[in-house]
């Protein structure tokens, strides 16, 4: 019987222990709170802050310490910390109307400051800082379409188009007529159109350089797509006309020749032949019989000369920026297609030329350097423009290695070669001039 009573007493003691412990924590927290008030009365705000933090460690639910600590932070201008403490206290005491009103006022002031800071960062083109401040602002004002538009612009400037579209969609759902959003959409569409045109231009240039049997058809398709995207592109129109001209010129020339009347000189010549037919009957009959053959032979000669002239003058212009086509791809393409000509490379800090003979690199020069050293320096250029012409001037051969060995011999940092001697420079100038 006695043992049973002892067990019941022990159980009741265990049940009462949490409440007693909680009560003891509150008592210690209240004592610390009184010490904090004394520190505040002495003007010791730092000491009061430390004591109030200890009180909250002792009893995290002690809202009096929360309110007092929030006021200290607000007085020092640390509104972010004060705001978080007010939100924490309201989660424990939702009916504290004064705290809710204070939080509303504080968030309004803080939001204005965050938005002003974000606009200032945008004016200075500090997009990362602006994004951080706008994120904090949108946590307090998630339905501000102007702030959403500003965030979308920052994302566009950073190149995050997917994120920008999400903010644009949120802003348009709130205000479909937002002027900044409309301007931003137009800017993104223009950039997308420009990027598509640049891509089509690169595809057309590569197709024009290719020598495969299906290349002309592929080049025509690429040029037509480029003209559809950019109707004012005169370069694409001229290249497409060049591709169509060989198929269109012979029928047009034949039709024009068929409609042209016989020149008067031939009529007079025929009358002369008729008058002298008795004297030179044999010669006249021969000429009359074979005149069509002679005319046909003359026409064929003219056509052959014209075609050979066009073939000799025909070029496959290739130009563009190395942001779209790296210089290594251009060199590999010229090599694979066995092209003969000169590739001019113009970079921000260097410029030079690479010479090809049936795809093989025979010479290179760059900023006073020649041979493999010049080739390696040109291959290090990452930004700039390039131009390929299918005319190979008479140059001295300085490179005998194939492209594969040239690429294998490239180093991350090529040591500059010594300056060429006066004799080598004179020979180089003479060979180029020839």
Offer a quick outline of the entry.
Helix content is 70%, strand content 8%. It is of the alpha+beta class.
Tags for this entry?
single chain; 434 residues; six-stranded antiparallel sheet; 6 strands; 70% helix; disordered C terminus
Structure description:
This protein has helices at 2-41, 45-58, 63-75, 79-92, 97-123, 127-140, 145-158, 161-174, 179-209, 215-229, 234-259, 264-275, 281-313, 327-336, 371-379, 403-408, 422-433; strands at residues 318-321, 341-347, 351-357, 360-366, 369-370, 384-389. It is α+β, with helices and mostly antiparallel strands and 434 residues long. The protein is elongated. The termini are far apart.
Q: Strands of the largest sheet, in order across it?
A: 1-6-2-3-4-5
Average residue-wise pLDDT: 78
* Euclidean distance between termini CA atoms: 126 Å
Model regions low in confidence, pLDDT < 50 over at least 5 residues: 1-18, 311-316, 413-418, 429-434
> How large is the count of helical segments?
17
Q: Major beta sheet, specifics? A: 6 strands, antiparallel
Strand content: 5-15%
Question: Could you estimate the helical fraction of the residues in percent?
Answer: over 70%
Radius of gyration: 43 Å
Class derived from helix and strand content = alpha+beta
By DSSP, the count of extended strands is 6
Element-level helix/strand string:
HHHHHHHHHHHHHEHEEEEHEHH
Assign an overall shape: elongated
């Amino acid at each position: 019987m006695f043992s049973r009573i002892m067990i019941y007493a022990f159980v009741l003691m265990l049940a009462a222990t949490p409440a007693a412990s909680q009560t003891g924590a509150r008592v210690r927290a209240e004592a610390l709170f009184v010490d904090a008030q004394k520190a505040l009365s002495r003007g010791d705000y730092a000491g009061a802050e430390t004591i109030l933090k200890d009180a909250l460690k002792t009893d995290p639910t002690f809202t009096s310490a929360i309110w007092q600590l929030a006021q200290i932070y607000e007085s020092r201008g640390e509104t972010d910390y004060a705001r978080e403490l007010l939100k924490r206290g309201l989660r424990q005491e939702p009916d504290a109307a004064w705290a809710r009103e204070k939080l509303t006022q504080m968030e309004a002031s803080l939001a204005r400051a965050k938005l002003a800071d974000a606009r200032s960062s945008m004016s200075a083109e500090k997009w990362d800082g602006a994004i951080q401040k706008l994120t904090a602002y949108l946590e307090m004002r998630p339905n501000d379409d102007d702030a959403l538009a500003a965030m979308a612009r920052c994302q566009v400037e950073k190149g995050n188009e997917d994120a920008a579209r999400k903010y644009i969609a949120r802003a348009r759902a709130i205000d479909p007529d937002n002027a900044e959003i409309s301007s931003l959409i137009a800017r993104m569409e223009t950039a997308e159109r420009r990027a598509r045109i640049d891509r089509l231009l690169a595809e057309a240039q590569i197709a024009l350089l290719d020598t495969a049997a299906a290349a002309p058809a592929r080049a025509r398709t690429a040029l037509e797509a480029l003209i559809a995207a950019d109707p004012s592109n005169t370069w694409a129109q001229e290249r497409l006309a060049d591709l169509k001209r060989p198929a269109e010129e012979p029928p047009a020339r034949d039709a024009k020749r068929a409609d042209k009347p016989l020149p008067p000189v031939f009529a007079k010549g025929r009358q002369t032949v008729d008058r002298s037919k008795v004297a030179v009957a044999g010669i006249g009959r021969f000429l009359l019989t074979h005149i069509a053959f002679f005319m046909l032979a003359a026409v064929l000669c003219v056509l052959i000369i014209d075609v050979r002239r066009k073939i000799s003058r025909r070029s496959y212009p290739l130009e563009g920026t190395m942001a779209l086509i790296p210089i290594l791809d251009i060199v590999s393409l010229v090599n694979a297609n066995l092209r003969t000509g000169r590739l001019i490379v113009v970079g921000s800090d260097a410029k030079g030329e690479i010479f090809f003979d049936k795809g093989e690199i025979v010479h290179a020069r760059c900023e006073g350097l020649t041979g493999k050293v010049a080739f390696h320096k040109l291959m290090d250029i990452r930004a700039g423009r390039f131009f390929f012409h299918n005319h190979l001037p008479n140059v001295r051969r300085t490179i005998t290695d194939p492209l594969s060995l040239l690429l294998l011999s490239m180093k991350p940092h090529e040591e500059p070669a010594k300056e060429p001697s006066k004799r080598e420079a004179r020979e180089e100038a003479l060979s180029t001039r020839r």
